[in-house]
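To: structure subgroup
Subject: Chain for Friday's discussion

All,

I'm putting the inputs and outputs inline so they're searchable in the archive.
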Amino acid sequence: MATTLTSRPMVLDERFDASLSRPLAKRMARHFFRWGFSADQVSMLAAFFGVSAGVCFTGGGLWPALGGLLLLAMVVTDCADGEVARLSPPSDKPWRGRMLDGFADLATVLSVHIAMAIVLARAGIVIGGHTLGLFEVLLLTAAGFFSFSWKSSVVDDIKQRLKPHSVDRDLAAYADQDKTLFEKVLYWALVNYVRTAARVTGQGRPGGYETFRLVAVVGPSHHLVAIALAGLFTPLAPTVFLTYLLLTIGPGNLFLWAVLHRARRV
């Protein structure tokens, strides 16, 4: 008797998104679609939550905790824009929504890292008898920002190559479309982002589903959730943002480097 083996479908979400954000986003998307929201408007709502989270992190009292909740809301809403797009008629300019979603993510990441720099500079953290100065805090948060960007780009690059259909792979087909000035800027930004993501993935541009599942451990959603949790605990321990930065710059980067190195050897 013959046995047919079927492989499980690929899950191209980080674990937090697959288990929580995506199911919630699908429910939210039905309401957004019914209320007449477009996918682009949902992306802007996600950006609002993300930027507001950064502003709240710099406040006193329980404001950082509110920032943590807003950042969690941003992570879920960031999934909802794609779900709204699936419910809407197909767009002849799918790259437009792809880049607006990217700008929402960038605004969020910039906002929370600037906020972390402000919080840590105010805290006057002492390590081994040395008080962290403004320059050192800025250096740490800049390193955290670029670490976040590197991990996010690698995860996205591998993810887009695994998708059956990807806007990133079809960008050349949209080069001659009529575009407004704003759309030309969006298209140019996406083309350069795709090239940069391919470059930062590194020599040989490793990929594959197994590699994706590993790099997704340090993906952008997981980072934002970690920052949100840090915000929730900031009223109790202002140094928690420093802990996050040290972990992402140190073990987080080493983990991603090791995964990519192993993938190249395999």
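Points worth raising on Friday:
Residues 15-265 form a domain with the Four Helix Bundle (Hemerythrin (Met), subunit A) fold (CATH 1.20.120.1760).
The CA atoms of residues 58 and 118 lie 7 Å apart.

D.
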